[in-house]
Structure formats: C-alpha cells, structure tokens
Write a structure and sequence with these properties.
The protein has 347 residues and is an alpha/beta fold. The chain has helices at 96-110, 123-136, 162-174, 193-202, 241-254, 269-278, 295-309, and strands at 24-26, 29-31, 35-37, 60-61, 78-81, 84-87, 114-118, 141-145, 182-185, 207-210, 214-217, 219-220, 225-226, 232-236, 260-263, 282-285. The two termini are 18 Å apart.
Length: 347
C-alpha cells in the first residue's frame, strides 16, 4: 500500500453540528469528537492533515515510539487477507528524541490533541520513555503498547501475562505526571482479557485501548512459503471487529467506570456506534485510512447521523447503552430516519 496514496487531495472537515452533539470526555480530556486515529496507521498525522483538519478529531494517537530508532522487520512485511490485512512492520520508528523534536513539536504547533503511544523491549525502557515524555510535555495522554504481535520475541508481548503487563504499566505510571491519563493497549490473544485488564487497572492504568491486532499468518501458495519475512504478523481490518467488540463488552461489563478506547476494523459510523454501545468512550480508526485517507472525518459525520437517527441528541448518551436492563426504554427515532442511508457494506 503505497505512501503516495495519501500525499495529496482536497481537505474536508468533520462537521461537529452534523446530526448530534459529538463531544465526549475521555478520562478527563474534553474532546470534540469520539473519533481518534489508531496507532501505527497514521504516523503523527501529517499526511492525513492534507485531507481533513486533524484538530477536529478527538485526538491523534501516534505510531508507537521506542527509546532508540528502529528499522523494523525485514520485507515483505504486509499482506492482504480476506476482510483485512496482515502486517509485520516491527515497530519501525525514529526513536523518542527525534519524535519529541519533530513530530510532537509539529502536533503542538498544529494544535492537535495528542495521545502518544509508547513501546519497549524491557520494563526499564518503558520507564525511560515515560520520563522523557514527562520532561517534554505537550500531550494529553499516553497509550502503553504492551501488546504488539509484530516482534521476533513473543516474550516482549507483555500483555499476554497479567504480571508482566502490570509491571510495565506500574513503571510508566511511576515515571509520568500523575495528571496524565495512561491507557494500556491490550491483546486479544489471551485466555481472559478481563484478567489482564484487572491487572493493569490495579497497576495504575487510567483506561484501556481495546484491541491490538491478532497474531496471524499467511502462506503464499505459489512459493509455498510464509508470505511475510517475519512469518507471522498482526491481523487488522473488518475481520477482527467482532472479536474487538466482544473484548470491549467484557471489559466494560467488569469495569463500568474505566474509560475504553475501542478499535478493530472500524470502517463506518455504524461500526463506531457498535463499539460505543458495547462500552467504548472513543474509537480509533486505523486500517481504513489505507484506502480512504478521509475515513476518520467521514466516520465522524456518519456516526453523528447514526446517533440522531436513533433519537439521541448526544453521542455520550450511547456509551455502554447495550448494557442497559431489558426493560429500559428506547428513544423514538425521528420519522425521517437516516438509518437506511448509512447501511454500509463491509467486505
């Protein structure tokens, strides 16, 4: 998927007045929209800003930053799959110092709300990343990526074990400004995601990002070898959406007061609505931007119409609404319902 795909084009803006009040409060962060970018799919937002005003989104969630520059895994490292794609990028990036000097500075100058995603190979690296960010400032929250499957050593996937997940989050919390929310990004590749969620919440996580990609594999039947140089990779796209919604539902049910950022195959406003009904306060749009760089702006507008079509005036009122009691009333949608207009087909 060529980088040239997102280097030009006209700009468009999410219309905050299209249908409903789209403001949300995410762990004390006031946002004009519940739509965020997803880490790893939009770098620091520069390219997408050529298509729509990124300051109108809830926040830009940056690509996961590591302590030192990292080249990532060998190529080929991307492969299309039914209803999604497999990637094995391997946390390629410039390192934290360059990120702060260039990308974070640009985001601040641009006026965007920023959630910085961080990743490390050891607990100490997470500690040092948090310390550097505390000194730099200029962001709204930290997303602690402890669940990236695109690493050679599966032992680095801290989110697969409650104890190691808690150790990382505790280290980040200890070295961060106490006022800065911390979101732990969890993996669906576990037996009980609620158990992992419980461990990171007790360790100091303010909220949770659900979910990271699923570990997958593709074999090229022409070469009869794995399609990716790294053999396995992270599966994203519409194929994983039911898994992601299930994880959001289970964690919301167990911890109804903990804010959740939902993600996984969101391509339309209706997809975003499903996550919010399951309990997400905000949602991140990722893989969709590869073939539609305006996707976050479009999904914002579609979600506003979905909210209005169901008789609600505020998107916040729909957060966790699927958990209501069976006898709870459902608002009457306006006669000129827009539901049919937003009946999107996802491949």
């Amino acid at each position: 998927m060529s980088r040239a795909l997102i280097l030009g084009g006209s700009r468009s803006n999410p219309d905050s007045n299209a249908g409903a009040d789209m403001q949300v409060d995410l762990a004390g962060i006031p946002m004009p929209s519940p739509i965020l970018t997803a880490s790893g799919c939009a770098a620091a937002g520069r390219e997408l800003d050529g298509f729509f005003d990124i300051t109108r989104l809830g926040a830009v969630v940056t690509k996961s930053i590591m302590l030192k520059p990292r080249a990532g895994r060998a190529t080929p490292r991307m492969s299309e799959t039914p209803s999604g794609m497999l990637n094995s990028i391997g946390l390629q990036g410039p390192g934290i110092d360059s990120f702060i000097e260039n990308d974070l500075a640009w985001l601040n100058q641009r006026g965007a709300r920023t959630i910085i995603s961080i990743a490390g190979e050891t607990v100490d690296e997470y500690s040092r990343l948090a310390s550097k960010l505390r000194a730099a400032g200029g962001f709204e929250a930290i997303e602690v990526n402890i669940s990236c499957p695109n690493v050679a050593d599966r032992g680095q996937v801290f989110a697969c074990r409650a104890e190691s997940a808690a150790q990382v989050v505790q280290a980040v919390r200890r070295n961060s400004d106490s006022r800065v929310p911390i979101f732990a990004k969890l993996s669906p590749d576990v037996t009980d995601i609620v158990e992992i969620a419980d461990s990171v919440i007790k360790a100091g996580a303010t909220g949770l990002s659900l979910i990271n990609t699923l570990l997958g594999m593709v074999i090229d039947t022409s070469t009869m070898r794995p399609a990716l140089a790294g053999v396995t990779g992270g599966l994203s796209g519409p194929a994983i959406r039911p898994v992601a919604v299930r994880c959001v539902w289970q964690v919301r049910q167990a911890f109804p007061q903990v804010p959740i950022i939902g993600m996984g195959g969101i391509r339309s406003g209706r997809d975003a609505l499903e996550f919010m009904l399951a309990g997400a306060t905000a949602v991140s749009v990722g893989t969709a931007v590869f073939n539609d760089p305006k996707a976050p702006a479009r999904i914002h507008d579609e979600l506003a119409q979905e909210v209005k079509a169901r008789g609600f005036s505020k998107v916040e009122d729909l957060i966790g609404y699927a958990h209501r009691s069976e006898d709870a009333p459902i608002p009457v949608a306006p006669e000129s319902s827009a539901l049919d207009e937003w009946d999107f087909i996802t491949e």
